[in-house]
Design brief:
Nucleotidyltransferase, domain 5; five-stranded mixed sheet; binds zinc ion
């Protein structure tokens, strides 16, 4: 009964995921569970994290003193020191305290926090990246929003509170009339995230300049049913309006990747997030651009463009990797 384990948690706007694994993080030993994110009050999330962790430990006959650490990756912005999320648009409250209530339940176990994209890049670093790309590695999440995690010269970039690499709010279109979720105009996220694609399509429909018959057919003329999924589907079928929106989504992603590569000189950039359900309409075009004609978007040598194979599990794997790297005082986060 002396075997040691690491626990991981990933908190997102829709799902909370937990996992335990043997301390070597052998992926065959990862046991996981998930549940819908509760938003009844500001302690709902920490309560359900405590409950899910307790359950997974009990079910597997693991005692608290066998846990070396709990890694928590969460949607940000996150104050890593305080262990609380602030100003997040999807978790329901202005401040969501995590550290204090979870510490109360597991007082003797070290708890480490990280914002989810920074966690994901650690997950890729540990579970997926090849040796020659590990020191200069970027993760880009294209989902409801766009976020990033950056390892540069062998160090994870964290910033003063842990929110470095908010790359989705890079300004890709000065004088843009499209407002981003953050309140600014012309962010990459306003063009290429799920909500960005959706909002831009609705604006274009209102404008009425482009034909959208195929898109409207897909949603039975119910405009409220239009999401990024239907827009990508319609674009595939040749819908004029949807093609334009998807073309812009891809174009501004090229701009974003170019900026990231200019700033961080990356060996590889891994993509993930819900938008990757339509990866075939995005990723091959990005790969081709940076293989054949990178200079239009970046002055540095181009990065390899890849896709994480762990999909929506990469944040949870990152939370596990965070604990392992903290315990072994790995130079990547020291
Ligand atoms: Zn923004």
């Amino acid at each position: 009964m002396d075997e040691k384990f690491i626990a991981g948690v990933d908190i997102g706007g829709t799902w909370v995921r937990v996992a335990i694994c043997t301390a070597d993080l052998n992926e065959n030993n990862i046991i996981k569970n998930n549940s819908r994110t509760l938003k009844k009050n500001k302690y709902s999330i920490s309560n359900s994290v405590c409950q899910m962790l307790s359950e997974i430990l009990t079910e597997n006959n693991i005692e608290n003193d066998q846990i070396l650490g709990i890694g928590i990756a969460t949607a940000g912005p996150l104050d890593m020191e305080k262990g609380e999320v602030f100003n997040n648009a999807n978790l329901g409250f202005r401040v969501v305290p995590l550290k204090e209530p979870i510490k109360k339940k597991f007082p003797k176990i070290p708890i480490y926090f990280i914002n989810d994209c920074n966690g994901s890049v650690l997950g890729i670093h540990f579970f997926e990246a090849e040796d020659d790309e590990r020191d200069n590695l970027v993760y880009i999440s294209m989902s409801t929003g766009i976020g990033g995690g950056v390892i540069c010269s062998g160090h994870l970039l964290l910033g003063k509170e842990g929110n470095a690499a908010e790359i989705g709010h890079a300004l890709v279109e000065p004088k843009s009339k499209f407002r981003c979720n953050c309140g600014a105009y012309g962010c990459w996220e306003a063009y290429s995230s799920g909500t960005g694609v959706q909002n831009r399509a609705l604006d274009a429909l209102n404008e009425g300049k482009l034909n959208a018959d195929l898109l409207l057919q897909i949603v039975d003329n119910e405009i409220s049913k239009i999401t990024a999924k239907e827009i990508f589907q319609a674009a595939k079928k040749g819908d004029e309006l949807s093609e334009k929106i998807v073309e812009d989504c891809v174009y501004y992603t090229k701009v974003g990747v170019g900026l990231v590569n200019n700033y961080y000189d990356s060996t590889s950039i891994y993509f993930g997030g819900a938008m990757m359900k339509d990866k075939d309409q995005i990723i091959p075009l990005i790969i081709e651009q940076f293989k054949k004609d990178p200079i239009k978007f970046t002055i540095n040598h181009p990065p390899k463009i890849k896709l994480t194979k762990y999909k929506d599990e990469i944040g949870l794997r990152g939370a596990l990797a965070l604990v392992k790297y903290k315990l072994e005082k790995n130079k990547i986060i020291s």
